[in-house]
Amino acid sequence: MSDLTTDQVGALAAALGLPATADDLAEVTHRLNALIEALAPLADLPLEAVEPVPGFGEAPAS
Amino acid sequence: MTADRDLAFLSARQIAALVRERSVSPVEITRVYLERIERLDPRLRAYITVMAESALHSARGAETAVMRRQPLGPLHGVPYAVKDQFDTAGVRTTSGSRILEHHVPVEDATTITRLNAAGGILLGKLNLTEFALGGTQQFPFGQPRNPWNLDHDPGGSSSGSGIAVAAGLCAASLGEDTGGSVRSPASFCGVVGLRPTWSRVSRHGSFPLSWSMDTPGPLTRTVEDAAWLLQAIAGYDAKDPLSSRAPVPEYASALGGAVRGLRVGVIRELVFGPETEAEVRESVVAAARRLERLGAVTEELSLRLVPFAGAIFMALGDADGAGVHHRWLRTRPGDYDQGTRRRLLTASLIPSAIQQRAARARALLRAELREALARFDLLLCPTAHQAAPPISAARGAISGRQEVAGRFFTRRSYVTPAALAGLPAIAVPCGFTRAGLPISLQLIGRHFDEATVLRAAHAYERESEWSQRRPPGTT
Question: In Å, how far from its chain's centre is CA A30?
């Protein structure tokens, strides 16, 4: 996924009705791009083999 | 003053024993803490609301019960405090935010009801990072400070819960751990912090962040106290439909058990990884050696997904939080702290493909931990990669993506594996840096096996002196 720009982030926020200052958008853009970059290597894992559920309800240890 | 100091740093169980044998009155010990709060808290800012009047009223009632030889709960006469994320009937509950500055609940959180039923005396409501998220820039109710060095971070989000226990401003406290919020302040403040198995403790009356990870847990000066507080708050609650119906064992009776033969896996990525500071590594390795001398069998293992846990958590837990806050983000954005607002805005905009990737990676991480805990009774690592950093280190706007990784992802990768997998984990003091700041050992156990976590932590604590030290200026 290519980097998001501040304009794109601003458009996303506006679409959701979320007010944000220019400084907010600049920082949120850094944060979003950092998160996307940090999670990028996970795309190489066998993710399709598992379902995206939190996994609660594990049994007590025996 | 010396006598008061000695009382203030007794364990909760010691206080309960002295109250039971009429050596200390609940009113006397409550006054000791109220005096200390008045004297020390203006610079520590552990408390948002001190409930002096109601605490003394409860203490008088507790004293009457003792004198009348009525049945006493296990925490009878023990003054405790709670993170201001837990509802208190008739007492404002702010969640550390201006948005809820005047919010007064009509009902106690289940955890508070249970601690009071065990005989606890509620002293007040403790400071936290706004809405239990990290990264608060300006605390609306005062900057909480680390009692070991006032210029350093006390950890969060249960900041006041760690400070108050470390500084002798209560006998024990309650925090809430979504992604490390009990264990991080315990680590930075040099106290014990227990995250129970997710669903072991009711979340009813606790302001939510992430429904699949929020877990109330105790912060205490001893592991034994953590066991007793967990005993008081654990168990099914009809008001929290996701709370577990699994039987609650007698945690305190497990404390004396042997550690000999326990299999302890040392997580290579977190103990020996490049992010872990040398002093932390040395202390944690020494703690592992001490467990070996007690008879545990340690072995290194690799958990390759653990370094991604911080980012996975922020893609999932923060997105849950963004859902909780969506209305206020639209209507009251200026009432949030800048750091909170930007974190929640970010979480609101995470692409669904990224969230899906994180959710599936969480399932793989959980499987990785489950397989490890089939081989080992416990997993061992630092609670944090460093001792408490200066408060100034996390101040100011973020100017680049590398800064995001440093501020948010790295440190969370130490505490979020247990959170993402719903596992119990404890933070126990295991040393000090040369600058005099606490270092913390983390032990992670199997689902609902808090007893083994507590047993190993207790055995380690008995063989070390770290829990005996007190922050300067608090004695």
Answer: 12
Domain ranges of chain B: 2-468
Whole-model pTM over 0.95: yes
Task: Identify the DSSP state of B347.
Answer: H
Closest residue in chain B to residue A45, using alpha carbons only: B361
Per residue in B60-113, pLDDT (tens digit) is: 999 999 999 999 999 999 999 999 999 999 999 999 999 999 999 999 999 999
Chain B hits for A55, CB-CB cut-off 8 Å, are: 362-363, 366, 421-422
- Least confident stretch, B89-93, B213-217, B360-364, B392-396: B392-396
Whether residue B312 and residue A39 make contact (CB cut-off 8 A), yes or no, is yes
| Chain A residue at shortest CA distance from B346 | A28
Give the model's confidence band at A57: pLDDT under 50 very low, under 70 low, under 90 confident, else very high. low
Cα Rg of chain B, angstroms: 21
Nearest to A60 among B345, B360, B447 (CB): B447
Q: Do A55 and B312 touch (CB under 8 A)?
A: no
Q: How far apart are CA B36 and CA B8, in angstroms?
A: 8
What mean pLDDT, rounded, does chain B reach? 96
Contact between B124 and B44 (Cβ < 8 Å): no
- Beta bridge mates, B83: B126
Across the interface, which of A34, A39, A43 has its CB nearest the CB of B404?
A34
H/E stretch holding B418: helix B410-421
**Tens digit of pLDDT for each residue in B62-75?**
999 999 999 999 99
Domains of chain A, by residue range, sit at 6-45
B445 chain-A contacts, CB cut-off 8 A: 61
As annotated, the active-site residues of B are 83, 157, 181
Amino acid at B444: I
The token duo for B452 is: 């083994």
- Rounded alpha-carbon distances, angstroms, from residue B22 to B17, B34, B317: 9, 20, 47
Name the CATH superfamily for B2-468: Amidase signature (AS) domain (3.90.1300.10)
Would you tell me which residues 174-193 of chain B have a C-beta closer than 8 angstroms to some C-beta of chain A?
A: none
- Interface check for B80 against chain A (CB to CB < 8 A): the answer is no
